[in-house]
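Quick bug: Precorrin-3B synthase output formatted oddly.
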Amino acid sequence: MPQTTPSPFRRGHCPSAGTPMESGDGLLSRVNLLGGRLDVNQLIDLADWAEESGAPTLEITSRGKLQVRGLSAQSETLFTRELVATGLARETAAAEAARHVICSVAADFDPKALHDPYAIAQQLDTQLSTTPALWQLPNKFLICIDGGGGDLADKNADIRVDAISSAKGIAYRIALAGSRQSAVLLGYCQVQSCIDVIIFLVTTFLSINEQRKDKATRIKQLLNDDTFALFKTSVSDLLINVKPINTERTSAKLLGQQAGWFGFAPPFGVMSSDTARGLARLATAHGHHKFRVSPEKVLLIPGGHSDLSAPLETLGMIVTNGDPRLSLVACPGAPACLSGSTATRSLALTLAEHIPDLFDGELRTHFSGCPKGCANPQASPITIVAQQGNFDVIVNDRATPLNENKRVAQNLSTEELAMRLSTLSNTLKQARRDDESLSECIARLDIEQLKIELNT
Ligand code: SF4
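Here's what came back:
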């Protein structure tokens, strides 16, 4: 696969097959599984190739891709060659990097979904990866096509199209720069207009961006009243008047036995190659040959039943929503990443085991091996940042906080960290109202009071 980027190993971009990214433990590459489609043989192949080429792990990313790490320049080339040969990547690196689409992964068997957007996503994916004029899209740009089942409701995308029902039938709601809840509504279009609408919006973004000195990487960076009007005008001929029925759709529950699938999650979204092969064998033994990989870092077995639960737990998988490990978000930390000073994931697991009231499966706690915050660039209710072997605690902000006042405890040893988190757990237990979650509770706590409680 010829390289078309100025440097093949750039930092700070989204890696893809043929355009890897440098990390502390070598190069990272990602396998794009459109619609989360992955069969048992592909999973075994990927587990084998990861083991032969780099670190023996597969990591699910927040876009539902499978990430392989620890590659050398040579092994990355061979890995990419395997992906292209088996249809898991495009022929050229530039075409592969132009695949910006995610879509609902379960809409063809989810009874709550309104429409299966996979065919739309496929056509759009092909159009983006075969039209060089569209390859200038920044590689973090995201187009999300949600069939209405709720599996992508929380995904922040540049362009969101969400299936809605109306008296006139199924249509798509078009919105910019956000999740289903927060994206700015542009209007509605017919199912058959979706691809044209998205391409017009993409083209408008590129043309606005071309005129800017500071190039935007996401639509939200350039969205204002004037640009919103330009986006709207670009698709006005395709917008229709519909009144959506029942737009209050909540995020889908994916884990465990659901109507249409059995869902499970590897802790931190990471499977060793051995575990991945074990999962493929288990699915096959139960008569299943396909998985769906969700951007929520959950794997679905279409048609799977609760008899999968115990053997999946034996393989270390999470199968219930209250599992403390669901609270944990962590980068690999040391020793996999040279920037890290702590083995973040093992620390997170130990703390979750010792303070189960705090790690209730809902309250997300981000363990970051350094202030870079790779595992979650957004704010988390709690972030633990390692620095030279000690830890800072940050609430409701990022690993490098936008507001330094949110750094509520600093320079803690491991023992001190465990004690402060126990104190925080007790504080939340006392302050929590009957009708609120732990993350809602921590969001309304007085920061100055919290600092006093944690530091005395
Ligand atoms: S956040 Fe984690 S993975 Fe990222 S550079 Fe720091 S230690 Fe490495």
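Actually, after a second look the formatting is fine. Confidence is low (pLDDT under 50) at residues 1-9. Closing.
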